[in-house]
Write a structure and sequence with these properties.
Rossmann fold, five-stranded parallel sheet, 2 domains, 40% helix, alpha/beta
Length: 302
């Protein structure tokens, strides 16, 4: 566990708790004249990691005053049944946000499930409509992890304007929306963004030129010290289990960045755990409140 008193550490856990406390006040005020925002979470199967993630989201919802409904389905549940459940939630006026915990069992088409969620309730921000809105600079919902990263950079007073940002990873969950977000005109944007991935030639050289390096490639401790520019800000999105016989669980969690090596070069760095993960959950709650505001007509959804 990283020492969060270290001035180089970006403490995502503490920042997320601050955001949840801010949201709790806003939710309380909102609910006095409407109702509590309501998030429905669908969990298919018994994947241990997914169960942990869902529990974390439920705790964040409780801290922010957002109501939740958890729908747990067996792993053998048909795709048709999952889609029908989503359609039912789409039509439920008391539900503001719908989240389907990923990954799904192999027999279910993940993209079809994502596209079944109403864009107005897609608080994860993965629906093609919402990703398209982000690309058009008119977002309804920004995917939670990129949104959380931007919030960390803002609260830690890391300017992105004119900076070279390298994002390692090209998923719709992190890489692509992160690049769109930081390249936007305006505050917390105006960066020059390079997206790298497993097929990138000269990745070490490119990453070493980054003022801000965001690693979301899903490979344990992939980013080594020599891949980081002196004084760079390093954001580690990865959560990987590696065997550790000295741990009671038999494993420990590490990021996509070799933390010990990176810390020697970075001016600021997020730890794993306790960095980006808690921020993702906080932004999910923020998106749920935003959805509820749109449902009440407070915010334009066009």
């Amino acid at each position: 566990m990283a020492d969060v008193t270290d001035p180089k550490i970006i403490d995502g856990k503490a920042t997320s708790l601050q955001i949840l406390a801010e949201l709790a006040e806003e939710v309380l005020s909102f609910s006095r004249s409407f109702r509590h925002p309501h998030l429905a979470v669908i969990l298919v199967g018994e994947d241990p990691a997914s169960q942990v993630y869902v529990r974390g989201k439920m705790r964040s919802a409780e801290k922010s005053g957002i109501e939740t409904t958890q729908i747990t389905l067996p792993a053998e549940t048909s795709e048709k049944t999952v889609l029908e459940k989503i359609e039912s939630l789409n039509g439920d006026g008391g539900v503001d946000g719908i989240l389907v915990q990923l990954p799904l069992p192999g027999h279910i088409d993940q993209q079809r499930v994502i596209e079944c969620i109403s864009p107005s309730k897609d608080v994860d921000g993965f629906h093609p409509y919402n990703l398209g809105r982000l690309a058009a600079d008119k977002p309804l919902f920004v995917p939670c992890t990129p949104s959380g990263i931007r919030e960390l950079l803002t609260r830690y007073k890391v300017s992105t304007e004119g900076k070279h940002v390298v994002v390692i990873g090209r998923s719709i969950i992190v890489g692509k929306p992160m690049a769109l977000l930081l390249a936007r005109k305006g505050e917390s944007g105006n960066a020059t963004v390079t997206i790298c991935h497993s097929r990138t030639s000269g990745l070490d050289r490119i990453s070493a030129g980054a003022d801000i390096l965001i690693a979301a490639i899903g490979r344990a401790e992939f980013v080594k010290g020599e891949m980081i520019k002196d004084g760079a800000v390093v954001i580690d999105v990865g959560v990987n289990r590696v065997e550790d016989p000295e741990s009671k669980k038999g494993y420990r969690l590490v990021g996509d960045v070799d933390f010990k090596e990176a810390r020697e070069r970075a001016s600021l760095i997020t730890p794993v755990p306790g960095g980006v993960g808690p921020m993702t959950r906080a932004m999910l709650m923020k998106n749920t409140l935003l959805a509820a505001k749109r449902a009440r007509g407070d915010v334009d959804g066009s």
